[in-house]
Amino acid sequence: MTITLTSPxxxxxxxxxxxxxxxxxxxxxxxxxxxxxxxxxxxNATKRxxxxxxxxxxxxxxxxxxxxxxxxxxxxxxxxxxxKSTLIRLVSGLLTLDxxxxxxxxxxxxxxxTAVKRLINRVSVDAAFFKKxxxxxNLSFAARLYGLNPRTARADAIxxxxxxxxxxxxxxxxxxxxxxxxxxxxxxxxxxxxSPALLLLDEPTTGLDPRSKLEVQTFIEELVATHDAxxxxxxxxxxxxxxxxxxxxxxxxxRVVAEASPAQLKQMVxxxxxxxxxxxxxxxxxxxxxxxxxxxxxxxxxxx
Length: 304
Description:
The chain has helices at 84-92, 113-119, 135-145, 150-163, 180-193, 210-226, 238-244, 262-271, 279-287; strands at residues 40-51, 56-68, 73-78, 99-104, 107-108, 120-123, 198-202, 230-234, 247-252, 255-260.
């Protein structure tokens, strides 16, 4: 499959940013980092929502920092309501920051909003479609919005859909006749069609059967290995996070409570806390809850 990804821009100005404090890199990780700005830099991001009749401010994200190196996948884990989706929406520009800053390839998402939006795309667990239209019609519409050549976009769309397990016999059927898992694959294909340099995947495999989940995970690995793509991945699947991510941030109550590589997280929880060297043990240790627990905050303050 041939997908030409947009090359990251040269920064308009070199940001005087310093990455958040991190545990030491595993062997070889430092060598992956380029001298240019990272794919994504989030510093002290904070977001509050006003909820209830008294418009009480509730903090959904509090001073969150993370750094995504070019060509890496950075995982974000957290229980329901911990702020994962809020963080993705902040990075994508769907929500505005109350405090802090976000840069994409050295471009500030507020000052350089238009340029940043050309570089990113997002896949949400609740992706929206024109349900009466087919996958191909939905992808063709997205291609026109991004100014892509219709003929080239159609050929790329067919290749992407087929790689994700959607045959040509299904691409002209209405979306509403497809399963939840198939619809999620179409959402992923739509995002990839625009060749994003930074791809934001918000629980992309939720609702997929095991085979479809494996197909999507393999495709994500191929995308990173063969193209200049950088990815932020939120997931409830710890095995998926361990397989795909170079680094993982664990959120709890809107704050980053741990960040390291999967191997380092397992080592930390074993050596410091005496727990089994697993990501599940690390997650339970640093959050005190399971992935399916809801964070006890005011209703709908931050979604997920």
